[in-house]
Amino acid sequence: MDIEISGLTLKYDDFVAVDDISLDVPDGESLVLLGESGCGKTSTMRCIAGLETPYDGHLRIGDDVVFDSVGRKNVAPNRRNVGMVFQSYAIWPDRSVRANVAFGLKAKKASKEQVQSKADQALDMIGLKHLADRGASALSGGQMQRVALARSIAMEPAVLLLDEPLSNLDAQLRVRLRNELRRIQREAGLTSVYVTHDQSEAMALADKIAIMKRGTIVQLGTPQEIYDEPATSYIARFLGMGNVLEISRGTEGTLGLGGVPVTAGTAPTSWENGRALCIRPEQVRLAAPSQAHSSQGAVLTGEVTVSIFQGSDISYEVDCGGLTIQAVVKRAPYGGESVEASVGDKVDVVLSAEEAITVPMDEESK
Ligand SMILES: Nc1ncnc2c1ncn2[C@@H]1O[C@H](COP(=O)(O)OP(=O)(O)OP(=O)(O)O)[C@@H](O)[C@H]1O
């Protein structure tokens, strides 16, 4: 079922944690709330679940208005038909896997056969049917989180809410489980809202990502839109763009990036004051000194200060007159053609006009 959120505001005493948020999540889609710690992701989620009472706004899940400040409507959490999966697994260790999954179904007073078949179906979906009779204490962290997920799915909720469910797992398992989560969400056509501060998790799991900052949504878009076109310098930095450089353009046609004068034969008109130039480390090219030409974009001269071997890539930091540029260069055997440099080497750094984008500069990220 779809979710409609409009004008949602939540206060903790005088502190506004969620500030007039409006969002729609279409039926069967996955929305990810992404942002720095404290930006209001969990608070927004808790409002949808009914665990917090908003100060203002309107919330609808499918045909049911579950909160409305004007109509003074506030449906209790257990009547909202939402499933929740949190960071802590909330598994009963002394019960079997099946009993853990069946718990909510029993509370719903389903028949014994229904409980059994729905629990087994959910376990099958998350790939744990073979462990149905095992005691839950004999499970790994990843398996426990799957059980928690199966328990929510078995209830066939209208909406599934997930708050950093993978953050207690090790890196490899996180990736595996997040891919599985995405498969299950798609297969079951689950409308879901997922909270995370991890951008790669967000990219993998979302149909749409809402980036939050100080209780507001600062960008909403598909993972591709957000990755390719961050709306501001703050978002570009938050997404790990690597090089986000304030542009200063003089009346004489001079150009500065991040406070350092650069040569740029073909600086596009969009490279203007008040904007930041963003370019990912993988898009930065290095050339031997004096070998780069400014017709390619902006050229800076610098010295390699950091060189880190990363298998098929080498990650560099280049000091260009006080400005540090991050570059990741593919090594020749892996399709790369750029120079490989060592710490102390002088290099030219090329920021291609074609590949760089510009975004409005946030005051605070200067
Ligand atoms: N019960 C509460 N009372 C007062 N302030 C709170 C309460 N819960 C959260 N806050 C504050 O509201 C803001 C938003 O918190 P919230 O937990 O929604 O952030 P978040 O984006 O989910 O952060 P994290 O990623 O760290 O979980 C924070 O500044 C937090 O300190």
From TrEMBL:
Keywords: ATP-binding, Cell membrane, Membrane, Nucleotide-binding, Translocase, Transport. GO terms for molecular function: ATP binding. Residues 3-239 form the ABC transporter domain. SMART domains: AAA. Signal peptide: none annotated. PROSITE patterns: ABC_TRANSPORTER_1 (PS00211), ABC_TRANSPORTER_2 (PS50893). InterPro entries: AAA+_ATPase (IPR003593), ABC_transporter-like_ATP-bd (IPR003439), ABC_transporter-like_CS (IPR017871), ABC_transpr_MalK/UgpC-like (IPR047641), Mo/tungstate-bd_C_term_dom (IPR008995), P-loop_NTPase (IPR027417), Transp-assoc_OB_typ2 (IPR013611). The keyword Hydrolase does not apply. SUPFAM superfamilies: MOP-like, P-loop containing nucleoside triphosphate hydrolases. The keyword Translocase applies. PANTHER family: MALTODEXTRIN IMPORT ATP-BINDING PROTEIN MSMX, TREHALOSE IMPORT ATP-BINDING PROTEIN SUGC. This is Iron(III) transport system ATP-binding protein. It comes from Nesterenkonia lacusekhoensis.
